[in-house]
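Known limitations

Files may contain more than one protein. Parsers should not assume a single record per file. Below, a two-record file is shown to illustrate correct handling: read the sequence, read the token line, then continue until end of file.
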Amino acid sequence: MSQSEHKPGSILRVRCQNFLTYADVEFFPGARLNVVIGPNGSGKSTILCAICLGLGGSPVLLGRADDVRTFIMHEKDRGFIEIELQSRTSSKLIIRRSIDRSLGKETSVSTTSSTWTLNGVKSSQKAVKAIVVEDYKIMVDNLCVFLPQDHVGSFSGFNCQKLLTETEKALSREQLYDKHMELITMQKESSSTKLNKQTIAERLAELKAENEALERQREKLEERKKFERKLEVLVKKKMWLDMDTNRKKCLELKEEKETLKTAYNTANASCIPLKEKLETLTKVGEKQSSSAKMFYDGIKQSKKDLEKHQDKVDKFDSNIEDDVMRLNELNDAQEKAERKANAAAEKLEELKSEFAKKPSLGPLDKQYQDCTAKYTTLNQQLGKLDRKSRNIGGEFRTAKDVCVFLEKDLKDIKDSRKTRWNKILQGLNSNKRSQMQQIKKFISENNFRKTVLGPIALEVTCKNQTAAMYIESHLPFSKSTTFVVQCQEDYDFLFKKIRQEKNIPINIDLVTSSSQSGDSQRSYSAQRFSSFKKNFGVVGYLDEQIEAPPAVVESLKMTQFDKVIIGGRATLQAISGNDQFMNELAKREPNHPQANSLQASILMYSNNVSRYSGRINMNVKDIPNNTNLYSTGTPKETISLMENKLADQKQKMNEISNEDKENNVELEKSERASKKAQDELMACKAEMSDIRKLKQRIDQQQKKVEELRAQAARDFEADMSKQLRTIQKTLQTSAKELDGSSDKYDALMDNTFKAGLAKMTQEGTDAQSRSLNQVIQDIEVEAFEFKKRYEKAKDEFTKTKAAFKKIQNECLQKAPLVDPVTNEELPLKKKIDELPDELETIDALIDEANIKVNSIEDNPEVAIQYEQRQEEIRNIEEELKTLNASENMQEAEASSLESSWLLRLKNQLDKVNSRFGRYMEALSCAGEIKLYKGEDESEEYKDWGVKINVRFRQASGLQALSAQVHSGGERSVSTILYLMALQDMLVSPVRCVDEINQGMDEVNERSVFKRIVSNSCKAPKDLTNPTEHSGQYFLITPKLLPNLDGLENEEITVLTIFNGTRSFPNYNDWNVEKYLRRKRKLDSGGAAMNGHRGGAIPKKKR
């Protein structure tokens, strides 16, 4: 009989109703080792599921489903799990989890379909977990404590880091795991601090370098300000000098004004007597002018009469000259006419001689008609060739345009990455499209430690359109628009800049080199999968149909796309026609996870094989035939057709070009022939025209000869006599007019003498008047000049006085030399007195100061920026001091924490190593547990782990436990012995392991069972306290070998699960004592069986 009692947190009772295979069952585990045994499919693992879910665990931990409703018995709507735990007090601790199929989906995130009670009072999953995990340290999520059947293989597949964290949780979450996580966090913060320090130090150096340049500019500005102050004093000195200059000028102008006024009055007074004398002379001059005018009128009239007689005499003289010339001409005309007639006759003979040499017009006319016909024919041929050339040119341009269009289309089609990017943007609304473009631009413009990939849709290249259709149906749009970074620093930087600072949503997957799993673990062995391809038309796995960077592939594995099987129409027919293919898919193989979906033709099948009934639950959905993001683009046939069409067009262009060259040769030949015919035609036409013109000239010359001969035959004697008579008559009339002209001349001379005498008298008087008037005008001009100078002096005086007053006010306001209140001299007076008093010198000094000031650029921002940067430098230096102090404090804290954590961890691992080595040695094997610090002895705590090294054969050395090197049985042995080595050190009062003995050979299974019994059933450390033992252990197995060593131990409780048609209708009808008595009675020769507290018999299984 067991001497142990249930440890606080151990399970006293478990009851299930409508839970998987159980309609209603209740069983009472022992305080120590509980062996759950029964045939396959009877519901052994269901007990483990009930314990996990009843203690607040998620269905995901079991590896069977993610919805707790799937654990409700088939065709039932509700079920519950009730677990009673050993309390630390005398009161009961009963936890009940009720599951309702109608309440909604329940996953690891959502728990809407479960209700909870604690001791009959309504509670929550959070409250249950607080009691189970925090109060009693039961960790159903730790594989070192709770190892379901579906995770037995996963345990040996843990990497070193995962094994360490699971071990730490199992041994002491507070002392080991939490401190380990705290150290990792501290290291991350330390790395961040160092990176931050480096960034800040770089910024500090940059600011100091910038301020060195600004310091030089600031010194220049100070020098400028110095000259500006000097310039200001000089300007004020000039103001006072200008005021003195204006004061002196005012006095000078005032004196000049009075002098000019006196001179003006004197000049006006001297003009009065002179004007009176001028008036008398003017009256005498007027009388003399009247007499002279009378004589001048007589002269004018005499001149007119004389001019009339003279005009008539001149006219008669001109007529006589004309008549004499005409007489001479008549004398020479006879000889001249005869000479002209003879010359014209000679010219006529020359033309006739030239005409006689010309050919006849008849043959020329025929030649002209022939040339015209030839030219017309050639010109028609030339027109045809020219039209053909234009048509060829049009065809060539059309073919060229088609080529350009096809080349552009082919380029766009082949640029699938650009096309997919446009399709990604088209799938977003305007706001998200802008955000996606901003993200892409930010990534392209910034430097990252490693290449940032994405969006994923741009990085994936599908092998064909069917694969594109499959992967697009498998991946959500959010995954297709995810970016992939390859180190934590890039992740933090991108997340901070995009999500936190710009507030732009972004999907980022972090895939480091250490997190890449390498080759996928396939759902089926290569042999079975080959048969699927051969018999059912399976094509392969979905991940084999794409090409992408390794980091992108690893990111896609998060969607289980490497577990998706794809097939064609033959696969679709195999699914629809019979269950053979689906049954083959349902069969599981060791170390091969089950495929989660199958895509065939236009349908996707998501299957879930029941682990209890073996049936396949299948969901079917359509695969859209239209692909968008992952489209391979235009089909190759279409591209090939376009390329062929492009080649045809280019061939056509070549043919057209050749035809054009041939046509151009013909065209040039025809143009030369046409030009030659045209030249012949024009030559013939010109020769005919010359003959006709020569004939016309002969006819005209003949008429001219006849006219000239007629003129030469006239009688000129009568004309000459008539002309002599006319000359005599004209001479007589001219003599009479000369006599009249002589009389008029005498009268003109008399009037001229008298007018001259009167004029001389008048001119004497006028000369006196002009002389006197000039004197008066000179005096008036002088007076006017005095007046004008006076007015000018007066205006200048007024202006200068106003300017003086203005400058005086400005000096008193802007450059005061004396305090107006105390009348004491100001510092400015001393500065001004030290300067020269010459205005020219001051102007020169001002110009010099201006040159100095203008030579230095005035930039007030320099001083502001300098001070701002100085302030920023001081702040950064202070921040660096703070960071250094913080870093030192962090290092001290980390060092202290590491010391306590590492010492405890090494002590614990040394114990585990010692026990594990002994346990392996007992099996004639070897093993060790090592603290693994990475390949390069990394100081990064996140890289630390636990490595299990084992040796099962004498010929080999210690090797790390792995699925690639060791068999399933060897891994199972190593796993259970590792768990046994942890046994006495675990804080959890409950441990479970499901079918760990599967795959072991008989020798190892016996040794392992003996070890389990030995470790789980050791006597309590304190015999006075029966609860001070290693705790409750559940070993679930479908079978046990006969005559196992240790099975007779009183601390073992065997829970036997029966199934079949003859099982008890109600588990309460089962009575172990009654069964034993009956067994002894029937088995008269048999040995009495040891009494064990029996297990429950469930109701009939569905």
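...continuing to the second record:
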Amino acid sequence: MSATYRQIPPLTYQRDVLPQPITALSFDPVSDILWSGTNSGHVCANYTPQGLRGVHYPVGGQYAVKKIVATDVNVVACSVTSDGIGAWGKGGVNSWYFKPGDQISTFSNKPPNSSAIAAATVTPELLLLNTQTGAVLRRTSAPSILTHLHYTASQSYFVSGDADGWIRLHDPRDLSSRSHASGAVKAHVSGIQGLETSSTLLYTIGLGERQGRPYPDSLVKMYDLRNMKPLPPIPFSAGPAFITRFPNRPTTLAITSSQGLIQIVDTTNPSTNEFYQLNTPSYVTSVAISPTAGYMAFGDSDGAIHLLSAAEEEAMLPFNGFDGKPIDWPDTVEPLPEIEWSDKTPLNSVGMPYYNHLLLSSWSKDLVPASLYFPPPVKVPQQVLNSIKVNDTIAYATLPKELRGRRNVVASAPKKTGGRFRSGKARHNDSEPVTPTYEYAPDTIPKCYRKVEIEYSKFGVEDFDFGFYNRTAFSGLETHILNSYTNPIVQVMHYTIPIRRLAKSHITTDCPHEHCLLCELGFVARMLEDAQGTNCQASNFCKTVGVLAQMHNAIELIDYGRESVDLNYAHMIQMFHRFLVDRLSTEGNSFPHNPTLLPDAGPADLHSPAPAPITQLLGIDAKNIIICSSCRALREKENMTHLIDMIYPVRKPTNDPAHETDFVSILRNSLLRRTTHKATCQTCKQFATFETRRSICTRDLPPVLAINAAVHNEEAHKFWRDQRRQTFLKPRVELRGQIEGMDDPETVVYELRAMVVQVVSKDAKSHLVALVKVPEAEESQDPEPWFIFNDFLVQNMTEEEALSFPSTWKVPAVLYLERVDLRQRLDFTKLPDKMDPTILCRDTNIAVNRDIRAIKHESLRYEELPRPGTLIAIDAEFVSMQQEETEYRSDGTKKVIRPARLSLARVSVLRGDGPKEGVPFIDDHIHTSEIIVDYLTEFSGIKFGDLDPNMSRYTLTPLKVVYKKLRLLVDSGCIFIGHGLSKDFRIINIFVPPEQVIDTVDLYYLENRQRRLSLRFLTWFVLKENIQTDTHDSIEDALSALKLYKVHLQLEEEGTFDKKLDELYREGRQYNFKPPAPAGAQTNSPVPPSGAGSPVPGQIAMGRGAFLQQAFAPGQYPLNAVATPPFFPIQGHNRHGYGHQNWRNR
């Protein structure tokens, strides 16, 4: 056989109107077939060098075939967008198809003496599959997205290349990377384009970088597989696009460019080269070499397969050099009998097909499931298996406490997906069995850890039944807010009592920062304390996080509400944790007037003021000891840090004692943090290695230890996993410091108080939950004080489950430990604890051009400051900061993905009693630095410029100041009167105890009518006033609610309110519960029924004008200080110019 190749006529398929590029090629090892893959996702068999067209079948997906590997018995292939990988017989019948749940990025060649191939997904994940059945033999995570896999000739390991340009060696026995000195090599800057191996050599081509853009690397790089050391590369100036090794010549490569230039080179003797140029008008898209090297095949973008043959002229050489197995041609179909059709032709003459074997529709018993009922049989809980005992053939175990209850009650049908709403509570059966929170398999995520989402009905988020998810006395936080991923860290801070005390104290001070996380944390803490199990929102805190993150160029902390697989919330929350603690330290620092929280912690220095309070709680005041390894020169450097980032051993040696890898040892090594670096020594003037360690005595360890777990890879997570029924994390740990390189003999005990963990679901999307040892539960002698705070889902759990890390779905992120001996010694008496009430007496305006005529309120005098039980009327207006996100379905229905985000724009508070009853003492427009999407002028009365300090004509006040005023009113025990206050308080982000709220929407409500009345209708019908004609005015609305409350009191005293309320609903139905247009305006309102004259004595008065006829004497007003006309026309007193005494006879 000649060593020189010649080009023979290409293989084309002219039937295609639009030729499909050939994206993959593979020679069959046992038959005279060349398998080709097209850009449309089909595999085609080309028989003999003449190109006889054979079977043609799709491989899944609608795009190009990515790779084909022909084996002795089948053909393995996958496409670019397919959701799996499959194998097909030589006749085109599918043997198996495996779907891993993600797209297949690549798969390897099949080793000669093995029935397994390696495959990679975009998750990224590495799999080992059986080529006969498609079963998964092994599975593990990959360091990055792999683009190439190739078994070496020795089959002892396989090589992977990823999208970042790294090549790694893997052991096929456990898919792990080999542990020699150079386990991974950065071969190319921007990615791998091709891999080939021989027994001892590795060849790669890839992309470099030129002017910041990927560019084909002109070198074929070589590495020694035994030690991964680079060898002299092979230059190829045309830019290598494909490299292919000759099967019969292990050291010979065919290097091909996309323009069709081919170089055949012996890598052991690079001076020996052969060059060929394909006669192709387009570019090359795939390459393959036959097993005997008799043919080289090149697919191009025009759908042609170019062949280089080593056979002599006019010689017919099979692809493999031998005939091989005969080609399976399809059997000839017998022709159908001809039937002459007439009116008398019987239909049974058509006949039925005859089958001599079972049809595919005749399923075997192996394919029929054993049970078609829901749900499948439950597994025995792991807690039961742990305590099981066997006596002869009988196994028995005690039922754990956490599994006691309705364990034999199971669902009879799949539970319908859908939110639980208070409006539909009557249709729900709350007594249905709840799935146990403890799952049975360690890889299955327990129900209480799973992501919970708020569903939205037509009544909004207020209709969602949060109480179904939280039946404890501890409040959860809602999730429909941007940056709500911070909810777990807020819960951790709240239930860390020293930090809670600092935050609550800070809100009583005159903080100069407009955006202050410590203030917002204090407000959330007060809200969570008051709510006692009612769901809350940290909307102001989350908004401040976004503002400060942009101000400090920390945009990686902003969550834009777009979930993706690449979003790692564990890493994100740890970055935010560091940012938050730094902000708390800065914002709470009142140097030099900081109070001392630990007066007896060490020697007192009167000339050294105390640091920031948060630094006194979390600060690790240590010294960095730096030693030169050359001259042993030593120098010290002060080091203050608030957090500990855990550092894990790089590798666990076999002779390591077990205690070096336990939690306490790793935590202590992370605290002392031994590191090395190289620099020039100022003493010996040599470039030497420096050893750095942290030195701190035990007594200086902080009262609260804040830890970032830093579990960023699989190796670090292995330390945390449960082993032999033992948890890595312990409820209490003993720590000791180190002084001058010697261990401090004194030890202190830290107790684990809370932690934030990341929960990774099977679709690789993650979320965060908080596991907290609640102090209030400990005080109430609760045997299990641990609770999980999964946003608005709050549930009790055992300490064992809280500390357990059974599998990879639970990843630690943040831990908080409290020093036991300092818990009672912390002195908070010097912290301020009362808010200055005179803020209600001050003018807090920041508008530059305020119009004196626009001032409608009169601040409180000192003697008017509120006391418990003081009546106040309140109303608020809002603007939209973000539009509602809605998903419209094909059936016309819609689903709210995220509701509109509203922000407080104006709040008005009126005096509810006293000589100035009805006079506002707060009427503040709220300054906001965010972009306003919609001013909602029709409903809020707010216009452009009203919230701008340079343009506003009104009293403009920062949001935090207004919030402090409202917080002071709540703490003072005021009674809030208004209409629809629950929604207002939700958006304001403040919790008011129910006993301090009087809502007229509930006062004037009949439960059996299931309709709540608007303030506008109530004011028109009851008070005979028209409000909200053009826009809403918060003072007008608050005053109307106050009047309605006074009318309610008067009717309750008379004992006629229930009767009047029935009349109100009956009359309101006639007007569709909407007030008609004012007098003189055209209206289509229904005409009241005629013939209804003045009420007869002894009968119930009907109609708008007669609602209060029997309640008040002529001229008597229910509001003694508000200058308003009589609410209804009284007989004989036609003060409003109506022609009839009763409104119904107008």
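Parsers that stop after the first record will miss the second one. For reference, the second record is described as follows. The first helix runs from residue 382 to 386.
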